[in-house]
Amino acid sequence: MTNQEYALIVQLNEYGYGQGDASYKAAGEIEGITRLVDAFYDFMDTLPEAAKLRSMHAQSLEESRKKLAYFLSGWLGGPRLYAQHFGSINIPGAHRHLAATPEDADAWMLCMAKAVDLQPYEPSFKQYLLQQLRVPADRIVEAGRKPL
């Protein structure tokens, strides 16, 4: 670990991200998360780099928007809305049938990075959030490599 990486970890821990509901609050609670998710899917709808990713979704993104916002609510330490409305979820398992590639994960992260950039989050939270979101993106790719 470099000194710069260590300094970042110390800084992020000072804000308490990942502890209790600190990340949920930093994201603006469900209203802020919904704005993030709407921007994310707007980018998925319009960025040429995300065309393949977009084709993996239904024509209407209404349900996907709701599910991602609800999932992120609980994942960030807020109310577990996804579980309340849809039951439990295993993110890699739920996406395994898509056989996502590293390029798909990169397209997903590109849409998310652009969406995060539009939000009025603290810069440290933006960086933290994108680092954390890379983990499930990569796990979905790994799950897609396993036979159904």
Characterization of the model:
- The chain is built from 9 helices and no strands.
- It has 148 residues and is mainly α.
- Helix 3 (29-46) crosses helix 5, helix 3 crosses helix 8 and helix 8 (102-118) runs antiparallel to helix 9.
- The termini are far apart.
Key terms:
148 residues, mainly alpha, 9 helices, 71% helix, 0% strand, globular
Distance between the termini: 37 Å
Give the helix level as a range of percent: over 70%
Largest sheet report = none
Give the mean pLDDT: 89
Tell me the number of helical segments per DSSP (H or I, 4 or more residues long): 9
**Helix-strand topology string:** HHHHHHHHH
Shape: globular
Question: How much beta, percentage-wise?
Answer: under 5%
Short description:
Helix content is 71%, strand content 0%.
Helix and strand topology:
Elements: H1 3-15, H2 22-26, H3 29-46, H4 51-55, H5 62-75, H6 81-86, H7 91-95, H8 102-118, H9 123-144
